[in-house]
TrEMBL record:
Name of the protein in question: Apolipoprotein D
Species: Pygocentrus nattereri (Red-bellied piranha)
Main location class: secreted
Family: Belongs to the calycin superfamily. Lipocalin family.
Localization per record: Secreted
């Protein structure tokens, strides 16, 4: 076991270090009760995110469209270095007993990564959390505050952070996403 860790940790370290590592397994947050996948469809703007280090683009938004098979097509876009970049994926309800536990994949070859709806009112804002255990020793996580418009009231953002914190999700390093100057595309 020890030998294994000595070998594996340095290999994983760049990945972990670029994100927000926490010891122990993923927290088990409460998710949106009676989550309605259909009402979640449509356009969401990224208002704040954790961690800050990657995804340096701005004007990040995601458009969810329900498909006939009950999955959703996911179209994400951002402006990076003056160019509009898009990424297409699929969202599924992974756990029928808890429909707020979605999974998203951006490629046929990649597994679904967790995309849990912690809370949403469908019409203004949503709190999303994604966490992956690494060897059950530590976890790497992502969190987003999404809005139906490009900005949300400060009180909504602060309340969102409180909800994450109450669920043992550390959002002290959460940063605001840039949503300025997005309507005049390059
Ligand atoms: C979202 O996707 C749907 C279906 O492809 C499309 O009709 C709609 O115009 C898109 N909305 C935005 C804002 O891109």
């Amino acid at each position: 076991m020890q030998v294994c860790l000595v070998v594996i940790l340095p290999l994983l370290w760049p990945l972990i270090n670029a994100q927000v590592p926490h010891w122990g397994p993923c927290p088990e947050p409460v998710t949106q009760p009676a989550f309605n996948f259909k009402l979640f469809m449509g356009r969401w703007f990224e208002i704040a995110k954790l961690p800050a280090q990657f995804e340096k683009g701005r004007c990040i938004e995601t458009n969810f469209t329900l498909q006939f098979d009950g999955t959703a097509r996911v179209l994400s876009s951002e402006i990076l270095k003056g160019e509009l970049r898009t990424m297409e994926g699929t969202a599924v309800v992974e756990d029928k007993k808890n429909p707020a536990k979605l999974g998203i994949s951006f490629s046929y070859v990649l597994p679904y990564t967790p995309y849990w709806i912690i809370s949403t009112d469908y019409i203004n804002s949503a709190l999303v959390y994604s966490c992956t255990d690494v060897l059950r020793l530590f976890h790497v996580d992502f969190a987003w505050i999404l809005g139906r418009s490009r900005s949300l009231p400060e009180s909504t953002i602060n309340h969102g952070k409180e909800v994450f914190t109450k669920n043992n999700i550390d959002v002290s390093r959460m940063v605001a996403s840039r949503q300025q100057g997005c309507d005049k595309l390059p």
